[in-house]
Write the structure tokens for this entry.
Amino acid sequence: MAPSQVMLVWGFRVLSSASMSRLSDAKRYVGATAASGKSIYDPIEVGSDLWIPSPELELLLDEGLRGVRLKGLPLRTRSKEVKSRVCMVLGYPVPRSFTKTHPRFPGQCFDTYVQKSNNLQVWNEELSPTRRYVVIRVSPDVVIERVRVVAGDTLALLDTTGTLTQKYQASLMPSGAAVTLTSDRDTDNLAPLLGDPRALVRFGASPTDHPRAGELLPIHEVFSRLKGLVGVRFDDYGSDQERNRGARMHCLVCERLGYRSYQDDGRFPDIRHQLLEVKLQTAPTIDLGLVLPSSVAALDVPKVADRTIRHCDVRYAVFSAEISGEHVVLTGLTLTTGESFFRQFRQFQGKVLNKKLQIHLPDDFFDR
């Protein structure tokens, strides 16, 4: 069993030692929250010691809410009970009444949704790229079975019609070279956090760990390690199997960067430890989700050496590819910072906008 996996045995959840360690680390946020005396309505700076990053938020809520029985409660009472439980799990005092704010938990910027079916409905507002969505699965007997925490950007990608809500897109532009490094320097914000590549040949960390000072490869070193993938071919799983194609691509990238194992938790960026997003393009259109790569908005990761990491600090490895028979062949690589992204790629003008906010969650959504 991989270090981040969980095993289900006769309905009981058995955490691996690595997951137990992560849960223990996550619980320090509960203590810090309780000690702060803050309410769910008090603002918190993204990345600060009181901000609970999404992976840790999911661990805490999944562990703390699993098994809670809601049967027999009217819908309004059920909603209040869930929100009260969320407060207790995270170390917040339970308010006498819950204010109708957007989102419902402003301090940690998330909403809660209790789901008996896979049809998620977001009422009266568009998905927000900076908001977290706590999706709570209940059994037919209305017992909480699983909790997932996803960003608005992730929910937008779950729409299969292409008409969900606003999303940004860009297009590949021929550069005349198989491999291109748009900028050989990282952003000024990231530069002081970079490590020495000679000491970072192999990583003991997981690709999904939060970034740490001294463990970030400079962008020119990332380029040096990844450009050899151009020309590599791997099995094509079919046009309807983009997740499997992407997983194989991420695995290859992890190997080249020096990780001992491949991990992907479906969050942005793909390889969080290196602040690296990986795109596999068999078509010219690049889907960017709800946030522009050049955005200076804070990224949902802890501060690194007291620096807030922004979306524009993320590095993008965009691989172009062709389908050849039963194989995917990597034909090119462009590596760029989010800050420099649109120096290399052309942004489609405007936004694709539609106010349809019914999202069918995949059957394996709660198993990822």
